[in-house]
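User: tokens in, sequence out, please.
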């Protein structure tokens, strides 16, 4: 592993993204899909508004999801258990059909039996956390399914400029305000964009990676140790993350800790950074971890673009066209 000659102590770049996604700037349509309707839906809506008064909630009937507006996004309120959404469950197929048709929706599960919904919920409850997580997931899904002109909807757009993220035979990059997640097999378009963004030839980068590991990039058996999974390419470097926020400049390793955690109760995840070519730049790397929409109010272990690729693959698997 190469050493980093950069002696900076700064962990973060001065260019940081907003703490939350700007989902408050866009209306969210609430759909009542509960089985137990002993609590009036207006009471639930009032409770949600009390927790997130900055959000624009609109209430519609379930049938509205069949004919959504051009930019409409749905938050579906349900009281079903997790098993209903698992593969083969009664709700899994219905949601997948809507998503495959391009309907942007996310579920918020509310269980009236263990949550007392009133108009005066105390601050800091699970409801606010669950609502914020669902709204963040909904906003990310909107970015992935409506991937043109995202720079205003996605403040972290600027953090991805000038970089290509390679993961699971996909490439993610941004260009002219748009988000692209494409297959590496889409040769002409990908190779051209790759060179424009990184000033590198993809085939040469592929050879560099293969030479570093002395094994083919695309032909590694599934049962081998994970490798070639999280790669970031830019003009200045080609790095791989070996699956973090304490940074060891000497060994190019970092750890992710829970924000606001007590010292003896910290949750750690150790990661390594391999410099395949060029020099690792912490000022561009660490802001990619400092987002709140991957782990609620916590640093993300891996740069957030890799999470976007994962979510996009999930959409592909249910039939959403790539």
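Assistant: Sequence out:
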């Amino acid at each position: 592993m190469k050493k980093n000659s950069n002696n900076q102590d700064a962990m973060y770049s001065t260019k940081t993204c907003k703490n939350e996604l700007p989902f408050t700037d866009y209306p969210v349509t609430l759909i009542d899909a509960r089985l137990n309707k002993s609590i009036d839906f207006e009471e639930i809506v009032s409770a949600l508004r009390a927790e997130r008064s900055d959000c624009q909630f609109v209430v519609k009937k379930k049938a509205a999801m069949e004919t959504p507006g051009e930019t409409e996004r749905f938050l579906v309120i349900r009281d079903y258990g997790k098993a209903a959404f698992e593969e083969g469950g009664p709700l899994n197929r219905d949601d997948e059909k809507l998503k495959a048709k391009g309907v942007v929706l996310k579920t918020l599960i509310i269980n009236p039996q263990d949550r007392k919904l009133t108009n005066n919920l105390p601050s800091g409850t699970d409801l606010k956390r669950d609502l914020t997580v669902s709204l963040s997931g909904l906003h990310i899904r909107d970015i992935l399914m409506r991937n043109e002109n995202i720079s205003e909807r996605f403040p972290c757009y600027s953090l991805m400029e000038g970089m290509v993220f390679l993961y699971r035979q996909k490439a993610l990059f941004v260009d002219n305000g748009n988000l692209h997640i494409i297959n590496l097999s889409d040769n002409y378009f990908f190779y051209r964009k790759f060179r424009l963004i990184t000033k590198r030839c993809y085939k040469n980068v592929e050879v560099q990676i293969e030479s570093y590991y002395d094994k083919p990039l695309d032909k590694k058996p599934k049962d081998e140790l994970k490798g070639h999974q999280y790669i970031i390419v830019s003009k200045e470097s080609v790095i791989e993350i070996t699956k973090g926020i304490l940074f060891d400049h000497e060994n190019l390793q970092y750890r992710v800790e829970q924000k606001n955690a007590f010292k003896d109760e910290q949750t750690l995840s150790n990661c390594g950074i391999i410099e395949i070519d060029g020099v690792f730049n912490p000022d561009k790397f660490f802001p990619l971890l400092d987002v709140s929409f991957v782990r609620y109010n916590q640093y993300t272990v891996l740069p957030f673009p890799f999470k976007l690729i994962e979510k996009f693959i999930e959409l592909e698997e249910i039939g959403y066209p790539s």
